[in-house]
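Why run this: before we spend reagent on co-expression, it is cheaper to look at a predicted model of the complex and decide which construct boundaries make sense. The entries below are exactly what would go into the expression plan.
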Amino acid sequence: MDKNNAIEVHNLSKSFKIYHERKTTLYEHIVGVFARNKNYEELKVLDNVSFSVKKGEMLGIIGRNGEGKTTLLRILTRIIKPSSGSIETDGSIAPFLELGAGFQSELNATENIIQYGIFLGFTKKEIKSKIPSILEYAELEKFADTKLKNFSSGMYARLAFSTAIQTNPEILIVDEVLSVGDVAFQEKCFKTFSSFKNQGKTIVFVTHNLSQITKLCDRAILLSNGKLNTIGKPHEVVNAFYRVIEKKMLTKDGQVVLLERHCGPHSFFVNSNTNKAYLANLSADIISILDTKNETIIKNIPVAASPRELIVDQTGKFLYVVNRDADCLTIIDTNLQEIITTVLVEERPRGIAIDNSLNRLYVANRDSRSVSVIDIKTRKIVNSILTSGQPQGMCFNTSTKKLYVTLSDNDQTIVIKDDLIINKIPVGKFPCSVTINEKNNLIYIVNRDSNYVTVINGLSDRILQNIAVQKSPFGISYDPETNRLYVCNSGSNTVSIIDGNTNMIIDTIAVGNFPLGVGVDERLNKIFVANEADDSISVINGTSHEVIETIDLRKIVESI
Amino acid sequence: MIFSIAISDLKLRYKNSFLGFMWSFLEPLLMLGVLYLVFTNILKSNIVNYPLYLLLGLIMWNMFSRSTSNSLNAIISRRGVVSQIYFPREVLPIATCITTFIMMIFEFGAFAVFMIFFHFIPPYTIAFLPLLLVLLFALSLGISFSLSVGNVYFRDLQYIWNVILQAGFFTIPIIFSLDVYHNEAIKKILYLNPVTGIIDIAHNTMLYGTLPTANELTYTVVLSFIILFFGYAVFRKFESKTIEVL
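The model came back. Tokens follow.
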């Protein structure tokens, strides 16, 4: 566990058996054994959730009712155990779940404080010394000897909140309790939370009040269908929440309709050995697997939020997907076409690169300005390299063992070798994708806002030339068979073909709207282009330079 | 933590009553008084020191039946706290057993009053009493562990257990002596009930100064602890999911 983290959650899943008719007596259980039909369903409340909370951070959790928020909190407080996955915490935890549920109405306020404190793990002496301050905080000094059965529900909640808060925990787990008490008391709770935050305490809280999220939290999480949909800055997550809600909408005549969703194909990885193309649909949170021979979609795999870049290892066995808004890496078995696990990386991961000889993966984390180094075998982060800017695209040069990382915000490309930054190359504006021409040992960097591709010598790391392309180039792919490069010009809806020997543009082909990603099946000489804006794939014949097929992706969104 | 809960349980029991905590001593005294009147004047028995014999058996049996039947609700009645705060769940059945154990100590206080009343001087073998109480506690706890978690899953366990307790009462030498059976086989069958051994040894050591045989003693000790460990194992196995069922 990282020592800066207060909570780490790894691949957490929880399912409940939902009985159609609960069996609570022995008789029903005995009869149930003989009754053949299964009278329960497995309900997956949490599905492969991974995230971490830093020490001193305030994390908000949002989501619709029944999306697993409370279950997550109960697992964090160890009240229930997860079905799979693990949680690690560092520091004492105070739960603020159903407040006052543990009180006994026959005992008076003081006695209840003592008993509650005992269950929270205090000695009688410790809790007794805290009674005056608890009663003072709850503004219930006059009612110290009043039995709780005579309390109003507001007084009840105030007493419970005050007792739990006086335990001086390091981590607070709070479930929608801020809606208790009058406005003045709520204000007081907020102030206490703020002062706790200033003292460096970690707070995790669930709320339906979105303004609390943007006002109080450092980061937020959106849970949707038990999955971690988005993690990040509060306003981003609130926006994502609106998107999730708006997928479904109640019409005026009371009917629920599905709104049109955007698919957002973003990037390709083509494995020409198996004739499979893997497509990351950023907006639909789906990985599509295509058969490159007959250009059809074989399977759609729903993944965590915003799959952005993807890569397959040398063996072709595993597909690694970077989920931008879930801060994680999803590992998919390409044979089973199923998710195996997810690995937590840092904030807003973008690019990915692989070093097959050392069995290492590199993930560029834009917002935390770092490159995570992951061991492929253990699937654990082994190192984190800090960068001087926001890393975007990455590419690993197998022959020189150098990793090229573009920093989009300060127009540089850095060169990393043995986990150390050995070179900084100034390039064009907003460098994004990067690829390698293995034959001539050349590195190509796409500069989105300068409309040219920078060519770098793979040995000396010197800039050789800039190749002017069309407007807003983004994705790039190299074809070793023909020694050609394909660049997506997202602003002019074209693909430029560059010759890898002369570095001259051979041809420019018109494709769909806003092409971002490109992949090449070198055996079949087919080029696959992801058109983000119109949810389609253009398939180009590498010999005739013609678009031979356009695959409409909108159907996959509708089907899921 | 365990003791604090046990004591607050005890306080809660006599809450709202006029004499309050005094009842914990008065209640057994009065109850034993009634039983003494009934069994010595109406039903005559030929057991030596019959009133004390009767009281001793009852006190120990009460401890067993109270702790097991109270523990049926140990988790269920604390549903609020259990679903809200994490703490080792073992605390609940243990606290229940300690509560009843403390009640038993009070009853032994009442028993001492009767000993003085009857001018009875206990033999030196009374030294066995602490061991017997430990065994009784271990046994009660073992069964309480399983029952507390079992009742969460099968709510009719509480009715079944009440019937078992009723039946169990008559297999134990409380109102009669094991000597009424001349058949050794029956005695052996009765000894299958783990409480029988403890109470039988208690009678012999506290009232008659006879030591238990090595076999009897080993059997009782081993059986009590096996039940304790078995009960705990059951508890551990099912405890984690209780919240979901509650």
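The longest helix of chain A spans residues 183-198. The CA atoms of residues 156 and 274 of chain A lie 65 Å apart. Bring this page to Monday's planning discussion.
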